[in-house]
From TrEMBL:
The gene is LOC103265046. Pfam families: Kazal_1. Transmembrane segments: none annotated. This is Serine protease inhibitor Kazal-type 6. Gene3D superfamilies: 3.30.60.30. Keywords: Disulfide bond, Protease inhibitor, Secreted, Serine protease inhibitor. Its main location: secreted.
Length: 68
C-alpha cells in the first residue's frame, strides 16, 4: 500500500510507502521518528504509523512528520 497525502494549507505533499510493513508478521522497532496521523495520534515511527494505516484500511493519512 502506498499512502499519498496532500495537505494544501500545510504545504505537504507526502508519499509514504508502507509496503515493507504490510505483512502482519513484521515487528516494529523502538526507533524514535514520530509521524502525526490524521487521527490526531502520534506514532513512534514509520512502522507504527504504517501498521495503523493498514489496520484502518487506509483511512488514516499522514498529517505531517513529527509529533502531533
Amino acid at each position: 500500500m502506498i499512502l499519498t497525502s496532500e495537505i494544501v494549507e500545510g504545504h505537504y505533499n507526502l508519499k509514504i510507502n508502507c509496503n515493507e510493513f504490510s505483512d502482519p508478521k513484521t515487528y516494529c522497532t523502538r526507533e524514535s521518528n514520530p509521524h502525526c496521523g490524521s487521527d490526531g495520534q502520534t506514532y513512534g515511527n514509520k512502522c507504527a504509523f504504517c501498521k495503523a494505516v493498514v489496520k484502518s484500511g487506509g483511512k488514516i493519512n499522514l498529517k505531517h512528520p513529527g509529533k502531533c
